[in-house]
Amino acid sequence: MSPVATIATDATDPATVVAFQGAPGAYSHLACREALPDLVPLPCASFEDAFAAVRDGKAACGLIPIENSTAGRVADIHQLLPEGGLFITAEHFLRVRHQLLAPKSASLKTVKRVYSHVQGLSQCRKVIKELGLEAIVASDTAGSAKDVSERNSNEEAAIASSIAGELYGLQVLRPDIEDNHTNTTRFIKLERQRRDPAVDAPNSLTAIMFRVRSVPAALYKALGGFATNGVNVVKLESYLSDGFQVAEFYAEIEGHPAQKNVDLALQELQYFSSSLNVIGVFTAHPFRSQD
Question: Which residues does the UniProt record annotate as the domain Prephenate dehydratase (predicted)?
């Protein structure tokens, strides 16, 4: 069996397994292959299942998408992180390259319909229009490739990843058909234990989740400690929980919690917060420093 087709089973050593959400051939599968090539991918039906696979010891880690440069943040992840019992230990950026896939008997002249997830279709509008294809929404990209392969019609194509084409025996009719050639998805690696880099290691990031107290200007005051201590906040997102009653925040800051200025900033944040959790300390991916 080729490395591409290798999928974790009950007999696979959990220490060699990385869990991801989606079907074999999904972009998360491709990210696992790219970021963690020595581990065996384990497809999971939902994000909850992927978290559980890591938490229950069925996988050494998980690789989960958290945001996309075109579509924004991935739904559900911020709700799962606080109570998931896992820690962010690394990040990976995947350039999303959509492939127009079809059976071996098909060509650009014979294809009439194209299937994919709604976002896959929306991100490839120009080519779909150029080729005059009927766009049909399916549940996911990899599943579209699988279905097109099984039906084996030279009038059908799918928009999916290169690994989906390899898995399901489809040819690439046209590569890299996405409208936006900077389309990128950010993934986080999740493990059961924190794996903080050394205090003096360069390019450390600290991920935190917190709730501020219900007092006027609480968020302003809570974040003030980062400014006064020279700590750069590189990401701050809010979302509602508890029936729209409570605002929670996810943030990423530059630096290590053991560094004095970061520690002081977190102490000030703690003073104005009803809860504060460090959910990971990790090294920034080199993608961040690209021009």
Answer: 17-192
CA separation for the pair 63, 50 (Å, rounded): 9
Main-chain dihedrals φ then ψ at residue 29, nearest 5 degrees: -60, -45
Give me the residue label for tokens 């080519």. 127
Q: Is 187 a catalytic residue?
A: yes
Q: Name the token pair of 17.
A: 């397994």
pLDDT per residue over 140-168, tens digit each?
A: 899 999 999 999 999 999 999 999 999 99
Domains of the chain: 3-93+183-191 (3.40.190.10), 99-174 (3.40.190.10), 204-285 (3.30.70.260)
Give the number of other Cβ atoms within 10 Å of residue 55's Cβ: 17
Q: Terminal CA-to-CA distance of the chain, rounded, Å?
A: 39
Which one of 20, 47, 51, 187 is the catalytic residue? 187
Catalytic option among 185, 249, 272, 282: 185
Amino acid identity for residue 244 in this structure: F
Say how many residues make up the chain.
Answer: 291
Query: Phi, psi at residue 145, to the nearest 5°?
Result: -60, -40
Using alpha carbons, list the distances in angstroms from residue 130 to 37, 118, 127, 286: 36, 18, 5, 36
What is the per-residue pLDDT across 61-104, written as a single tens digit (0 to 9) for each? Answer: 999 999 988 878 887 787 888 888 999 999 999 999 999 999 99
